[in-house]
Write a structure and sequence with these properties.
With 313 residues, this protein is of the alpha/beta class. The protein folds into two domains: 5-50 and 150-310, Rossmann fold (3-Layer(aba) Sandwich); 53-143, 3-Layer(aba) Sandwich (Rossmann fold). Helices cover 47% and strands 15% of the residues. It contains 14 helices and ten strands. Helix 3 (52-61) crosses helix 8 and helix 8 (150-166) crosses helix 9. Its cofactor is pyridoxal 5'-phosphate. Keywords: Lyase, Pyridoxal phosphate. It comes from Ancylomarina euxinus. This is Pyridoxal-phosphate dependent enzyme.
């Protein structure tokens, strides 16, 4: 494994002073609907509203003094943008964030609020990478990848470490998957701290490159994704794909209406604001209820940065 148990423990110690150990909540009504015991790790309560704070912070804290002087740069449609801007602010360094022009307004405002400098580009990967390369060559900033980076993956794994500390007898842990940083970190933490726990991912049908990649046994890039789960639009990377291939049992694909149903259930029954990407994990459980009957399941609620002017219900 490229990331050891020691790496994860050291990461958690490093970022602990700066992050929230988010609560784990449950709902008797949702348990009844699912026919299983569900434990929601509420990363919507994390600083800047998503798990991405963990990985961004771990990467920023390990920069040299020279790198810190020149700042950091990334491309992101939202949550990693905010996480990097806030992590940089906490360390007193500059953050340059390339964001697609159609990124949710709520996320752009947050990045600016954390002191990040936004460079807008067209909404495709080529434009994001071209704009980023220009920023890096002009500023000398260190590029931190939103998910295809071992420091970032280690940080994301700490959410599952905390979940396992509270509930060490889980049959499954389920996370949503986009670029695979959260899922890789989740799977590594389960592998090292709770080997009996199986890891599964939820993925929208409209952005199912991970499912396709695992089916074909090779990296299939994301093309023209169509889903309301705007945090899951990216392609896997060469670091996340092998980890997911080796450590994740299954990808469950869900329809858009199933995402809406799960999201609405969490909002109405748990009184929690979660974004569509977060609801994908619960949607996966509800889709394959027979598989999970009577099981104890951890769910990573990945974030709560919702554009309230654009709700799906």
């Amino acid at each position: 494994m490229p990331i050891t148990l020691k790496d994860l423990k050291e990461t958690h110690q490093r970022i602990k002073p700066y992050i929230h150990n988010t609560p784990v909540l449950s709902s008797s009504l949702i348990n009844e609907i699912a026919g299983a015991q569900l434990y929601f790790k509420c990363e919507n309560f994390q600083k800047m509203g998503a798990f991405k704070m963990r990985g961004a912070l771990n990467a920023v804290l390990q920069l040299s003094d020279e790198q810190k002087k020149r700042g950091v740069a990334t491309h992101s449609s939202g949550n990693f943008a905010q996480a990097l801007a806030l992590s940089a602010k906490l360390q007193g360094i500059k953050a340059y964030i390339v964001m697609p022009e159609n990124a949710p307004e709520v996320k752009k405002k947050a990045v600016k609020g954390y002191g990040g400098e936004i460079i807008e580009c067209e909404a495709n990967l080529e434009a994001r990478e071209t704009s980023l390369n220009k920023v890096v060559s002009e500023t000398g900033a260190t590029f931190l990848h939103p998910y295809n980076d071992y420091q970032v993956i280690q940080g994301q794994g700490t959410a599952t470490m905390e979940l396992i500390e509270e509930h060490d007898d889980l049959d499954y842990i389920i996370a949503p998957v986009g670029g695979g940083g959260l899922l890789s970190g989740t799977a590594l933490a389960a592998y090292h701290f709770s080997p009996k726990t199986k890891v599964i991912a939820g993925e929208p049908f409209g952005a199912d490159d991970v499912w396709q990649s695992l089916e074909k046994g090779e990296l299939i890039p994301q093309t023209n994704p169509q889903t309301m789960a705007d945090g899951l639009l990216t392609s896997l990377g060469d670091k996340t794909f092998p980890l997911i291939q080796e450590l994740v049992e299954k990808i469950i694909r869900v329809e858009e209406d199933e995402i809406v149903t799960a999201m609405r259930l969490i909002w109405e029954r748990m009184k929690l604001i979660v974004e569509p990407s977060s609801a994908v994990a619960l949607a996966a459980i509800l889709k394959e209820k027979e598989k999970f009957q009577g099981k104890k399941i951890g769910i990573i609620l990945s974030g709560g940065n919702v554009d309230l002017g654009n709700l799906p219900f």
